[in-house]
Structures
1.
Amino acid sequence: MSAPLSPEDRAFIRSILDYPEDFTVWLAYADWLDERGDPRAEFLRLMVDHRRAPAGSAEAARTGERLLELRQTLDPRWLMVFDTVDVANCPASNGWAFRCPKTWDSLAPTDEPDIRICHDCKSPVFYCHTVEEARQFASAGQCIALSSRSEERYEPMREMVRLGRMHVDDEYEEYEPPVLPPTEPEPPPRPWWKFW
C-alpha cells in the first residue's frame, strides 16, 4: 500500500483509535477494504480474531503466525496504527526492574502518527521502525515502541524491549564531564557610596 490514505481510510482509522475495543468498527473497515479487493482486510479480521482468542491457545498461535507473515507485506506506516508491541525505556522506572505494562495500541493518539501519549507517566512514546531509530530515541531518554515488523530480524533487540532494558549505549554511560579548574570567587560588591 503505497498510495496515500483516502478520507474513508482516515475516518475508519480515527474511529478505531478512538474506540479500539469496538470490534464492529474493525470489521466494518475490513468489509469496506474487501469490497475494493484490498489485502489489508485479512489483516484486520485476523487482528480481531487474535484479540478475541484466549492467550496461549492454538487459535492465538495460528492467527499470530499469519499476522506476522502479513506484517512483512503491508505498508509499515499503515500497520503502525494497529501494532501491539510493548513500550520500553519508560522514565517512570527506577532501575531496570520496572516493565511498562502498556502496549502501543493502548496509548492515546496524537496529531503525529508515530507519537502517542501514555496517560500514566505523561510521556510521549515514539514508534520506531528500525533498531537504529529505537537506539537513538532510547539514548535520548524517550519511551519507545519497536515495530513488530522487526521481530525476526532483530530478536535480541526485541528481547531487550520486552524486558524493559532498552537504555543508552555504553559510550553514553561511561561519559564523565570534564573537571574544570577552580575559579576565584568574585569580590563582594562595593556599596554605592564607594564608587567615586
Note: Residues 30 and 44 are 6 Å apart (CA to CA).
2.
Amino acid sequence: MSSEGEDRRPAAPASRPWSLVALRYVLPSLVTLAGLVIMAMGSETDLEGGAAIVSAGLAIFFLNWLFRAGVAGDRDREAEDAAREYFDRHGHWPD
C-alpha cells in the first residue's frame, strides 16, 4: 500500500529484555539504596562514603538516561531525513 520510504516510523517496541531493565533501573536503584543504608550506619565516615555511593548510583541512572536521549535524537534525525527525501520526490511534506 505504501511506496518505499513513505512511512519509516519504527514499530512499537516489544517487551524489554530483563537485562536491559536491570541495567537501566535495578542496578542504579540498588547502588543508591546501598549508599543510603551505609549513610544510616552512623559515623561521619559512613555518611561521606554513603553519599559517594549514592552519587555513583545516580550517575549510573543519568548516564543511562543521556544515552537513551541521544538515541532518540538519532531516530528523530533519521525521520527528518526520510521526510526530506519524500518531499524531494513528491513535492509535499508527508503526513
Note: The mean pLDDT is 84.
3.
Amino acid sequence: MWEEFKKFAFKGNVIDMAVGVIIGGAFGKIVTSLVNDIVMPILGIILGKVNFTDLKIVLSPAEYSATGEVIKAESAITYGSFLQTVVDFLLISLSIFLFVKLMNSRKKKPEPQPEAPKGPTTEELLTEIRDLLQDQNAAKHV
C-alpha cells in the first residue's frame, strides 16, 4: 500500500498540481491586495468617496453603556465586503483566463506530418496475385 501511495503522490502531475495550488494561493493574495489597495479606493473616489468596506445595512444598532462600553454588538449585513470579494473573484478569474490563453497561444502547434507513400490498393494486389498464379499454372502446363 505504501508503494502505491508513493507512486501516486510523486507522479509528475500531482507535484505539478501542488505547485499550481501554492502559486495560485500566492497569486490570489496579490490580486486581493490589488483590489483592496488600488482598485476599490479608486472606484470609491469615482463613486463619491465611498469606502466599500463601510457599506452595510444595520439590522440592529450597537448598544453602549454610559461609559462607552459596547453592551450589545451591532448586527449588520456588510454587503460592501461582499462587493469587494466579488471584484476580487472577477479580477482573479480574468487574470487566470488571460494567463491560460497566453500559454495556449505560445504552445507549439504540431507540424503536419508528410503523407506516407501510398501503396497498391487491395484490388491491385489481388490482380497481381491472380496474374502470378496464372503465369505459374501456364508454366506447369507447358
Note: The chain has four helices and four strands.
4.
Amino acid sequence: MDNENITSASLSDRPEEIENEQTQEENKNCEDWESKYNDLNDRYLRLTAEFDNYRKRTIREKADILKTAGESIFVNILPVIDDFERGLKAIDETSDITAAKEGIELIYNKFKSFLSQNGVKVIETVNQPFDVDLHEAITTIPAPEEDLKGKIIDCTSKGYMLNDKVIRFPKVVVSQ
C-alpha cells in the first residue's frame, strides 16, 4: 500500500507541476509577445512621427520654392523695364520718331528673347487647322476658298505656351 500511496501521490502532484510549467511557459510566451508588441508599436509610432515630419517639411519646402521661384524671372525682367523707362524718357526728349520706333523694337525683341529663354512660345495660328485644344474660336466666317475650310483666317489675340502647356489660348476667327 505504501508503494501505491507514493505512486498515486507522485501522479497526483505531477499534473500540477505540468500545469505550473505550462503556465510559466505561457507567461514567458506572453511576455515575449508583449515585448514584441511594444517594440513594434514603438517602431510604428516613431515611423508615423517621422513620416509626419517629412510631410510637413516637404510642404514647407514647396511653399518656399513657390515663393522664390518667380524671383529669377523678375530679376531677369528688370533690365527690360529699365529699357522701357529709358525709351519713354527718350521719346519725350526726341522729335525723331524713327529712332524712338527702333528703340521700342529693340526692347520688344529683347523681351521676346527673354520669353523664349524661359520656355514661352507663341502658338502659330494663321492658316493653321483649328484645334480645340490649342485655339479659342471667337467667331466663324464663310471660307473664301475651299482649301481654307476649317482653318484659321485671323488671330485677334496671340496665344502662348509654357513648356508645351497652353498658358493663354489664342482668340481666332475660323473659316467654314
Note: DSSP finds two helices and six strands in the chain.
